[in-house]
Amino acid sequence: MLSLTKITAIRKKYPALLLNGRNTMVNLNELIQQLTLEEKAELLTGGDFWHTRAIERLEIPAIMMSDGPSGLRKQEKESDHLGIYGSTPAVCFPSSAAVAASFDTALAQKLGCVVGNECQAEGVALLLGPGLNIKRSPLCGRNFEYYSEDPVLAGQMGAAMVEGVQSTGTGSCIKHFAANNQETDRMVGDSVVDERTLHEIYLAPFEAVVKEARPQAVMCAYNKVNGTFCSENGTLLTDILRSAWGYQGMVVTDWGAVKNRAVGVRAGLDLEMPGGSRRGIQQVLDAVAAGTLTEAEVDRAVYNVLKLVQTGIENHHPDAVFDRAADHDFARHIAEECAVLLKNKDSVLPLTEESSVALIGDFAAAPRYQGGGSSHVNSAYISRAVDCMPKGMSWTRGYDQGSDTSDRTLLEEAVAAARKADAAVILAGLPERYESEGVDRTTLEMPANQNELIEAVSDVQPNTIVVLYNGAPITMPWLDKVAAVLEMYLPGDGVGAATMDLLYGKANPSGKLPETFPQKLAHTPSWFNFPGENGITEYREGVFVGYRYYDAKEMDVLFPFGYGLSYTSFAYSNMTVDRSRMGEGETLRVQLTVINTGKLPGKEVVQLYVAPPAGMRRRPVRELKSFAKVALQPGERREITFELNARDLAYYEPLLHDFYTPTGCYEIEVGASSRDIRLRKEVSFTAERPLPRMFTEYSTLADVVSDPKD
Ligand code: BGC
């Protein structure tokens, strides 16, 4: 099989396929005319686990795809899509859950550049990521791979990542399209979602990334949406993705997501992966023979596959170098930008090197830094906390991460060490067996032995600091007893050094929570409908996902969306809006000043929310619409500008099958979290078209005359 590594030779030998962009269309169509129907059907199924299929007769090469996005999982020997077999030594970057906590699109873009370059160096043309699914429940086993409970944050971080990857010439494949929000029944489940919720929450990040970053590929999800498998779903793959959003790239199945291949091609699915089997090929041939699939439909899919192959070949940089040491340093830097400081009583952090510190936890020697499953990276280097301890720090294991039961000897050793020291730092969180692709959690609790250890240590040591490694929210029954909590998420293989830099103030935490930490599982919006019954999951909470739900219900939470502390402090002032009225097609400029009022350099994430007026449809109390991360020296001030348009004030109106902004008065809110709004202004919006009303034979005269159209 031909592969990208032989690209220089291919370039000289096969000019027919390797054309410059302007001629692409014409020549690919000419090439398609030379293919037999059999060859066309073959091109629509991969050649093996990770490659497209080469057609030697016409000198059409194959390209390679590999998992990501938090590092490269390139498999050259045994292959699997569950992270079981080995892969090329690479660098594990923070998982998407962590990257989202940075609220830093420039950082996400840089990450994309670095991973894209690694792909180039390894001959991988398409990176399978990022995942854009919304965190509907904190229990979803793949939440560590996803960005947020909020579609704007997920869309902006995802678009930046895709732009970064594709700036290197590597393609990015966004996934899993769509409404793939749980692992229970993952190959067969049906996500039943109303039209408004689908567009406003679950499709919105995909829409943003498709329109802003033009990913080369979209991966369809395993599940059904409203009764139809995503791999056969014409509404999703053609009507929405291509017709409404203008997508022009290639659509690939998730690995093994194909049901009926011919039905899929008709619905807009181009490439079946993994390859190597004739089943799908035969189904396409049979369907064409039976007249249920036209050759034009086959050609359309072949064109999309060939375009992807051609782009991969043309954009390959054979000279790219994968510098594992430099990229590992970058992974550590990103981890420092993602950490969220949740509690810091009496400024117990940062620590000073003069104080004696008891470092406690199995994770210090065997760190938890990445999630399990297809995104699992084989790290070339891992920085462990025990290897980065400053003088004055000593380590005890405290618990066994392979067990949930307390080991008395380990616990007592840790308590004794904590009692003698000036402070205790406990590295805790979720072992890998608690969260992984393929299985959802059933509880938000950490292992009992870790909770017991934290209680016991904080009984003897008032300066107890808990550092957490987990891919999704947990409960913290000991929160009132400890002095500080630093949430690291799954920070990649720079974990040990990054943790120490943050604890000792070489880095100042600047992350904010990209999701709500609820007080308990029973409070979560999808509690009654997760993970569904008999393979059917009804999204009955509608658009009220994450903070949209907790705010509407006026519920207390453990930590709200957007929350995070710093070793310094920030003040917000001077908010202005450049107009008090706006309409369709107009832009609202919002400005404000942020000042670092503390004594250390730091970064603040300024968040802009819109609170809509009451109307015919129930809407969330407030929704994130924009954000900016700003670095400030002590005393430094910076003016921040946001721009909003009508779509930022809109909701999805099912009667129109489109987004709609009703006339009314909107509050523009700026804050440091969803529950810490510091500044507000009002703007009134006037809609060009009134909202359509639905009348039936039972509508009253009063209903009809109250229609603003009359
Ligand atoms: C996962 C995808 C992954 C693919 C290839 C599937 O099981 O859902 O996210 O890209 O395998 O490994």
Descriptive labels:
710 residues, hydrolase, Immunoglobulin-like, Glyco_hydro_3_C, alpha/beta, single chain, Fn3-like, six-stranded mixed sheet, TIM Barrel, binds beta-D-glucopyranose, Rossmann fold
List the SSEs and their pairings.
Layout: H1 7-13, H2 24-34, H3 37-43, E1 65-67, H4 96-101, H5 105-121, E2 126-128, H6 151-167, E3 171-177, E4 190-192, H7 195-202, H8 204-213, E5 217-220, E6 224-225, E7 228-229, H9 234-244, E8 250-253, H10 261-267, H11 279-290, H12 295-314, H13 324-338, E9 340-344, E10 357-360, E11 393-396, H14 408-420, E12 423-429, H15 448-460, E13 464-469, E14 484-487, H16 495-503, E15 536-538, H17 547-552, E16 570-577, E17 581-583, E18 588-596, E19 602-611, E20 623-632, E21 637-644, E22 651-653, E23 658-660, E24 664-673, E25 676-686, H18 701-705
Helix pairs in contact: 2-12, 3-11, 3-12, 5-6, 6-8, 13-16, 14-15
This protein binds beta-D-glucopyranose.
